[in-house]
Design goal:
The chain has about 675 residues and is an alpha/beta fold. The protein is built from 28 helices and 10 strands. Helix 23 links the parallel strand 4 and strand 5. About 40% of the residues are buried.
């Protein structure tokens, strides 16, 4: 059996590890690293990859899993809310881009009608995989410009099929058959989507409830993969893209209670295969032709980016969005996409475009995709620079006015930053006690639903100090930061503490990794969800073991009073920690004292651990474990010291304790 393709995969993985590590260190998007690997390793670069077919076949499933997880985020009710973005902005963008590009191609380059239409379809597409991933990483997926971009991308994905059929049609068969094929494909697609909707409504929910009853993570993951791949196969059989079926299946499951678990199971496959997908895109570029084609490539690149930026921004303005949202939507989508590359590949294979013209278009598309993460990351700052100060100020003032209206008349109230699950629970408890509050969140649908429910919630970025002032920060009794991300929480803390050092600020964090950082930034209290869950579990466990309630409550108060220090002493396992975090993470270390060690026959107080950052938590002496040993207790040969601290501090202390008896601290 031939296993030669394993060489290619190993080369790709090794290169990916090295280049992505470099890009992360340089604070650049990993997607750029994947594209660079493809250009360098592909058949037109160093030619280290002999056959790209295997990689491309696997890579297609990266987009499938991406669209499946997007569907989990955008359930059917949310998609209905987005109908104006999908059918209005999306349809207008694809139609106008295709018509204008085709007209220019006919007039200036003399292309045939079918070639011009195909080129228009190539220009109309943006990268769904890149935009979704980048917006998710930046926590902008549910912002106004993020939702506009997703709506336009969804319509682009729907329109891929007619363009693919047109691109695959031989130039000499210009009868009615291609148009009949398009109509047939769209009819099959409608049937496929209807089937998926019905299956999702009547089959998938009870199926996953039954699967969850087995309490098997392996079975749950297998079922999730089966559903995603099965839906993709169905739409593919009906003439639509693989990714569209996966999206609809995810959308159906997004309405179930299994949404978060499904996303967690699919994410490792998605991220790995998406990286491979972008590598295969980079492999398409023939760098040998670039020296002779640079002027045409740069001109086409500039035209593509500026044209899509102006068109999409203008359409958003006509749809009623302000200048800031319109420009940011245009910046997010002002590039080429993977489906455009697929259409271009078929056009080149069918002879609709010459090889030289095709490489010019391909190079411009790839460079635009390479620039896209930078444009998306900086879309806010670019909009601030490009728009007149008055335009940005007007947009901000409108948001501030809405927030100020919500907070009008409030004093000694609570400002809740983030109105997700945690924020809503906090709000309900405040309401039970008759305490007024105002909440800020960036999810427009969540905010709209809250407003319809007469909740005092406003759309806005809580890390913007002007919006906090509009919410009545100077009159507020407390601030509750209920955001998932640590960076905006730190930004809020720094801004608030610059003007008010007294107001209580309570911060929610997922775990203890950023506990010290948040406390140092000025948080009055930090509530780590995992540690609080362990406290509650321990509380009920000790009560079940007949420990007196007074003692249990006293212990919990002690733990909280000591800022969770006791519970932060954990033994690290297989948690998903980055090397940087793991290198700083405090941990336990057991040190056995041999005969002649410096620490032998010395009392604990003489060890001098107070200023080292290391704590002696217990001594194991033969079969006896002595917790929190007394300061006057002498250490003996054979004692095992259980120390807790950072790795570097532990290493220094260990060298002293085990050193020769003549050595001093």
């Amino acid at each position: 059996m031939d296993y030669s393709y394993l060489n290619d995969i190993l080369i790709l993985f090794a290169a990916a590890v090295a280049v992505v590590m470099l890009f992360l260190r340089l604070h650049l998007p990993p997607i750029l690293g994947y594209l660079l690997i493809g250009v360098l390793m592909g058949p037109y670069g160093l030619a280290w990859i002999a056959d790209t077919g295997h990689a491309r076949a696997f890579a297609e499933f990266g987009v499938v899993f991406l669209l499946f997880t997007i569907g989990l985020e955008f359930s059917l009710p949310r998609l209905i809310h987005m109908k104006s973005a999908v059918l209005g902005l999306g349809a207008s963008q694809v139609l106008l881009t295709t018509i204008i590009t085709a007209a220019l191609s006919l007039y200036f380059f003399g292309l045939s009608v079918e070639s011009a239409l195909v080129l228009g379809g190539v220009a109309a597409m943006s990268s769904t995989a890149l935009v979704i991933r980048q917006l998710t990483d930046q926590a902008e997926l549910h912002s106004c410009h993020g939702r506009n971009a997703v709506g336009i991308l969804l319509f682009q994905d729907l329109m891929v099929i007619p363009f693919l059929i047109l691109a695959a049609t031989p130039p000499d068969t210009l009868d009615a058959m291609p148009y009949l094929a398009v109509a047939t494909a769209l009819g099959k697609g409608t049937l496929a989507l209807t089937i998926i909707f019905l299956l999702g409504r009547w089959v998938l929910r009870p199926l996953f409830r039954g699967i969850a009853g087995f309490r098997s993570a392996e079975l749950f993951m297998l079922t999730a993969l089966l559903v995603a791949m099965g839906a993709a196969w169905l739409t593919h059989q009906m003439g639509l893209s693989l990714a569209l079926g996966a999206f609809v299946a995810g959308m159906m499951l997004g309405e179930t209670e299994f949404r978060h678990q499904l996303e967690a199971e699919i994410r490792p496959f998605r991220d790995l295969l998406l990286g491979l997908f972008f590598i295969t895109i980079g492999m398409l570029l023939d760098v040998r032709l670039l020296p002779d084609l640079w002027p045409q490539v740069l001109l086409l690149l500039a035209l593509l980016v500026l044209f899509k930026l102006i068109l999409i921004g203008g359409l958003c303005r006509l749809a009623g969005w302000d200048s800031a949202v319109s420009l940011r939507t245009g910046l997010v989508l002002a590039h080429g996409g993977e489906f455009g590359l697929a259409i271009l590949g078929l056009a080149l294979a069918g002879g609709l475009l010459t090889a030289e013209d095709g490489q010019v278009v391909l190079a411009a598309l790839l460079i635009s995709i390479g620039l896209a993460p930078l444009l998306i990351r900086a879309n806010g700052s670019i909009a601030s620079r490009l728009l007149p100060p008055g335009a940005m100020e007007k947009s901000r003032q409108e948001i501030e006015a809405r927030i100020a209206g919500t907070a009008q008349g409030l004093s000694h109230h609570v400002i809740i930053c983030g109105y997700g699950r945690v924020g809503q629970n906090v709000a309900q408890l405040l309401e039970f006690e008759g305490i007024r509050y105002v909440a800020l969140d960036l999810d427009p649908i969540l905010v709209q639903n809250a407003i319809e429910a007469k909740e005092p919630v406003s759309y806005g970025d809580a890390s913007n100090f002007h919006l906090l002032e509009a919410a009545g920060l100077s009159r507020a009794a407390a601030l509750a930061i209920c955001l998932k991300e640590t960076e905006p929480a730190l930004k809020i803390l720094h801004q608030v503490r610059r003007v008010d050092s007294e107001i209580p600020v309570l911060v929610r964090t997922a775990d203890e990794a950023h506990l010290g950082m948040l406390q140092k930034a000025g948080a009055t209290e930090v509530v780590p969800e995992k540690l609080e869950a362990s406290l509650m579990l321990s509380y009920h466990l000790l009560l079940a073991l007949k420990v007196p309630m007074m003692l249990v409550s006293s212990r919990l108060r002690q733990v909280r009073r000591e800022r969770y220090t006791l519970l932060r002493r954990i033994i690290p396992g297989e948690e998903a920690l980055s090397p940087a975090v793991e290198g700083r993470m405090e941990r336990f270390r057991a040190i056995k004292l041999p005969a002649g060690a410096w620490a032998v026959e010395r009392p604990v107080e003489e060890l001098g651990l107070e200023n080292t950052g290391v704590t002696l938590t217990a001594i194991q002496r033969q079969d006896q474990r002595i917790s929190n040993p007394a300061r006057e207790m002498r250490l003996l040969t054979g004692d095992t010291l259980i120390l807790f601290g950072a790795p570097k501090a532990l290493a220094k202390v260990e060298a002293v304790l085990l050193g020769p008896a003549s050595r001093k601290t």
